[in-house]
Amino acid sequence: MTPPKSLKNIKKSKSFVWFLLFTYNKYMNKQEIKKVLILRLSALGDTIHTLPAAYAIKKTYPDCEIGWVVEDKAQLFIKDNPLIDHCYVIPKKQWKKRGILSLENIKEFKNIIEQINKENYDVVLDTQQLFKSASLLPFLNIKRKITLTGGREGSRFFSNEIYPEYHKLFDPEYHVVKRNLEFAQHIGADTSEVKIILKEAACEIKTKIDELLSNTDLNKKTVVISPATTWENKHWAEMHWKDTIKWLKDKANIIFTGMEADKALIERILEDTDCNSYINLAGKTNLEELAEVFRRAHIVISPDSGSAHIAWAVSKPVIITLFSATAERRSAPFGENCYVLAPQLECRPCLKKKCRLKNKQDKNKCCSLVTAEDLIQLLQKLL
Hints:
By secondary structure, the chain is of the alpha/beta class. It folds into two domains: 13-186, Glycogen Phosphorylase B (Rossmann fold), CATH 3.40.50.2000; 203-382, Glycogen Phosphorylase B (Rossmann fold). The chain contains 13 helices and twelve strands. It has helices spanning 5-29, 44-60, 92-98, 103-118, 131-134, 176-186, 203-212, 238-248, 263-270, 287-295, 306-314, 328-331, 372-382; strands at 35-39, 65-71, 86-90, 123-126, 144-148, 161-163, 221-225, 252-256, 279-280, 299-303, 318-322, 338-341. A six-stranded parallel sheet has the order 3-2-1-4-5-6, sandwiched between helices. Mean pLDDT is 90; it is low at 1-11.
């Protein structure tokens, strides 16, 4: 059955619009890029995943100034980063306490917008692709407002340059870093090298970590275990941690990291392992100090968590990430020093915080299918 002529005309007109957009963008990408603003407000892991795009831009345009709009919780590795010339922090936590429409919040928002507009950016990249980032665009005096198709919450309607995405926004087979690099690619940046640069730790942080790790055996390699994360079904089975520690205890320095609330989990993991020589840093470091701990490690083992992303960002240790409910091809640390252990199950990656399987025996099955033996075989090659 042949489609009606009107439908054919619509298809032709759409193709023509994309052709015009492609030609315009190709022309614009030849223009000199002097100042770029990145919108990536949260979260910490997603912010780290966007840093390779900043590196690609800086590498291609060494004199280019990069600004970044970020929320207070995720500013840690953006503020004072050598790649970032201007950091604009949105104090979301404080604004929520006051009430979103409070006069003080409006004044602070206006001040942030004025600071941005003073810099006369050539391009703004909405890498977040949500309403909260896109809603800033109407206030910004920037000619080129770039995003990809596939954004959520109507975010694409706030941009004036919309590039067709290579893969869907939440494609479990396509890494989020590669998607972020598409933004850099669309303004002519060389994205062939995936690299992150972080600011160097302050002297007081280095001194504190020196003291915390003073009892490590310099003749052994150091393995950092960060066993906790915020999702129950991203945790690795405790029995597998126990068996791993029994094997590892005499072969390496073992350091545990986490928050104060993770101490109970670490204590349970250590029960009946006869492991008496370890350092437990849970609750003793902030995130900047944690990054410095990772810089001293040879190997970091973690489920899919912020710790794994921070370890990847510091570029030094070998990282082993244990996946369960989430998508390793989309969000795992990657590179020659990164290893992933993930189970084969039809229901994964489900990307859900709570297991949807109804059978009690199958609940959180993905957390235990990767075994201690799988991890130990890998550690034997690395230690």
